[in-house]
Amino acid sequence: MSNLVNSINLNKTPNHIAIIMDGNGRWAKGKGMQRVFGHRNALTAVREAVDGASDIGTKYITLYAFSTENWNRPKLEVDALMSLLISSLKKELPDFQKNGIRVNSIGNIEQLPSNAQKVLLNVINQTKHNTTITLTFALSYGAREEIVNAIKNISKKVVNKEIDIEKIDEKIINNHLYTFNLPDVDLMIRTSGEQRISNFLLWQMAYAELYFTEVLWPDFRKEHLFNAIIDYQNRERRFGKTSEQIDKNE
Ligand code: FPP
Question: Where is the active site (predicted)?
């Protein structure tokens, strides 16, 4: 493990990592257990990912905890996920404070049960001055819903003459997304072997490197994160330029 960390160039770490935490259900099924057992055993992986990102100096980590589509899951599973969210936020608060973790959320938070909203807003408020890393939970989040929401809000401002149509640019759109206070995603990791984006941060991942691993989320540990980072560092991010331009730092 220490070898793995030594292989990481700390001057070239991703500033923003986004993770699709997939495979909890299959992990539980593989053990002959109910799906909820997988979600309950996902918290160690969450801690390892956040600690690992923090260790290498990453400033933003965003976790896809509950999608707009997840509301269609059986009520029992939705309720269990909400309870898990509430209990783990409460339980982790002292560690968030100790480790300088600022908690943030993106998504249509008003759709969450009111007790979940309350706990979430309290943790966000209590951790707002922490500066080591920003941990964003995507909750009731869908990228298309986010874009629709942004368009509605921009349109209202156009009607009210607060924004001139000709002035609408990428920056204005960015400022109306749930992620207005987050930088673009540099690295997106998805576990469990699925190779899809699944309506996650579509705008923000325009230039992200994508990394897929077969590991099921409850088994995800720092070493898996570090392997993803090493893979990321071996890629050349060109942002539409040529290799020669990148080499010359143009
Ligand atoms: C995907 O696995 C996981 C989810 C839909 C929920 C993610 C939730 C957690 C990791 C729980 C902890 C998070 C918080 C914020 C407390 P899946 O159920 O789709 O697995 P499958 O594809 O194997 O069925």
Answer: 22, 70
- Burial level of 170, CB count in 10 A (0-12/13-18/19+)? exposed
107 close to ligand 1 (CB < 6 Angstrom) = no
Architecture of domain 2-142+183-249: 3-Layer(aba) Sandwich (3.40)
DSSP letter assigned to residue 74: -
Give residue 22 CA to ligand 1 midpoint distance, Å. 6
Q: Which residue of the set 15, 51, 55, 70 is catalytic? A: 70
Write the pLDDT tens digit of every residue in 71-93: 999 999 999 999 999 999 999 99
Task: Identify whether the C-beta of residue 52 lies closer than 8 Å to the C-beta of residue 222.
Answer: yes
- pLDDT tens across 149-207, in order? 999 999 999 999 999 999 999 999 999 999 999 999 999 999 999 999 999 999 999 99
Domain definitions of the chain by residue range = 2-142+183-249
- Tell which one of 22, 119, 198 to mutate to probe ligand 1, the residue whose CB is within 8 A of the most ligand atoms: 22
The verdict on the CB of residue 42 being under 6 Å from ligand 1 is yes
Residue 22 designated active-site: yes
